[in-house]
Amino acid sequence: MSGQDDRTRLAATPGIDFAHLTLRDALDLAVLIEAEAQERYEELAQQMATHDSPAPAAFFRAMAVNEAKHGAQLAERRRALFADAPRTVTRAMLWDVEAPDYDEARAFMSAHEAMRVALRAEKKAHVFFSTALPEIGDPGVEHLFTELCAEEVVHQDLVKAELAKLPPEREAGDDDFADEPNAQ
Amino acid sequence: MDATRNGHDAREYKSDLKPIWCPGCGDFGVLTALTRALANVGRPPHEIALVSGIGCSSRIPGYTTAYGFNSVHGRALPIAQGIKLANPDLLVIAAGGDGDGFSIGGGHLPHVVRRNVDLTYIVMDNQVYGLTKGQLSPTAALGTHTVTSPEGSLEAPVNPLLYVLAYGARFVAQGTPADMAGLSAILEEAIRFPGFAFVNVQSPCVTFGAPEQQLKAHKEGLKQLAKIDYDPTHRMKAMALAQTYGRELWTGVFYRDPSPPPTYDALVRERQRALAADALPRERILELFAQHDGEPGRAEA
Ligand SMILES: Cc1ncc(C[n+]2csc(CCOP(=O)(O)OP(=O)(O)O)c2C)c(N)n1
Ligand code: SF4
């Protein structure tokens, strides 16, 4: 990704001061990032189900489950370290960090395309953590972000492996295109 | 647990009804940005009314937990004004498409602006009629090819930003779901503005819209007012900037009146109170009526 994209990603976390981020805040942020991604995948799965596209719907649903699992692990870690200490970072402070952008989805997209959407989202999250890293002040947060960066690479590999298992993509046919205009 | 800064969660404002918009439609981002803005503003859903006309974008009230009215094509604004005047304590938002707002409903716009009713009007501008499958809209650029302009349109487009500024609107902004954080912040500011607030959202139609109008193009060409030294308190400067509509994608607050006057709904309430104070008590009216034997015309005699 270009430098411009990297800056855009940082701009999508209004109110977060990476230089002063504590480990507790960083864990909370990571949990919220997973929650946002989980919700977005659930939305995309629902969009696909509404548009009669079961294969991408199933894949997006599986991604939502993965994000939920990862979020639960991070939340558990946060609880173990900081118990119920109040949270200062909120959902208002992050936008689309690991969640695929809405315009990634298309009616009647193939399972291949759905997987490529997830791959781009994992890359986007990697860019987010790696771009933030040099700004981090706290060594514990630096360690956590390094770990999350590495995990995003593992996730990318998992998606790539799933993609490789799929049969070759079919060409789009006439039925994939919009109907004639109508009146309402 | 995922509450925003004032304890509200954007998910409180999304209903269980799942959108049937085409995947990739810009309106998904508008819905998410709006629900986040509402969570930040912090009014509970039962204190909010979201009114729309007809169109894909006008489905938005059903996807929120606010009171919703998916009304009649082009009539979101008169209905929203009526709701605000009948129940001024409600937070009222009108929403819809560019066809709804600037074609069939275009006649209502100058009047809601000059009245300055305290409501927010969000137009999801996709330069096409989405719901009816791709006819020419009033904001489509000259030469646009659609099913109703197969050889390219011959009509110059409406410039929504310039129109509302010229009508005298006191809050005028533009956003895009390509910048969700920016869009949500703009919507929040518009909702908090005391008076009529207009937000034009460039919300692409993936199915019938032109490639150069899609979010990918927005992400590449976006120009944010928040990133330049721009003072939004000058109407004439805002009008000059609004001239770029259709050529450049500027997002942010174009104009915000630094000292907004009392709103129409506040003035109406004041007038009602004054009239009520001067009004004869009910008993006295009945007494006068009895004196005149209830005969028509006697009072004037
Ligand atoms: C009185 C009336 N005239 C025409 C229509 C047909 N109609 C429904 S939606 C629409 C335009 C939709 O375009 P827009 O308002 O831009 O919304 P979008 O679907 O693009 O979000 C039209 C012409 C109608 N429903 N009622
Ligand atoms: S037709 Fe266009 S405006 Fe309507 S839901 Fe589909 S993409 Fe959105």
Describe the structure.
The complex is a heterodimer of chains A (184) and B (301). Chain A is an all-alpha fold. Chain A is built from five helices and no strands. In chain A, 42% of the residues are buried. Chain B is of the alpha/beta class and 301 residues long. Chain B has a single domain, classed as 3-Layer(aba) Sandwich (Rossmann fold), CATH 3.40.50.970. Chain B has an eight-stranded mixed beta sheet with strand order 2-1-3-4-8-7-10-9, with helices on both faces. Chain B has a two-stranded antiparallel sheet with strand order 5-6. In chain B, helix 6 (180-192) links the parallel strand 7 and strand 8. The longest helix of chain B has 16 residues, at 26-41. Chains A and B meet through helix 2 of A and helix 1, helix 6 and helix 7 of B.
Bound molecules: thiamine diphosphate, iron/sulfur cluster
CATH class of chain B: Alpha Beta
Give the overall shape of chain A, derived from the CA principal axes.
Answer: elongated
Radius of gyration of chain B: 22 Å
* Percent helix of chain B: 25-40%
Rg of chain A, please? 18 Å
Report the CATH architecture of chain A. Answer: Up-down Bundle
> How many discrete domains of chain A?
1
Question: What characterizes the major β-sheet of chain B?
Answer: 8 strands, mixed
Q: What percent strand of chain A?
A: under 5%
Summarize the structure.
Chain A is mainly α and 184 residues long.
Keywords:
heterodimer, A: 184 residues, mainly alpha, Ferritin, 5 helices, B: 301 residues, alpha/beta, Rossmann fold, 10 helices, 10 strands, 34% helix, binds thiamine diphosphate, binds iron/sulfur cluster
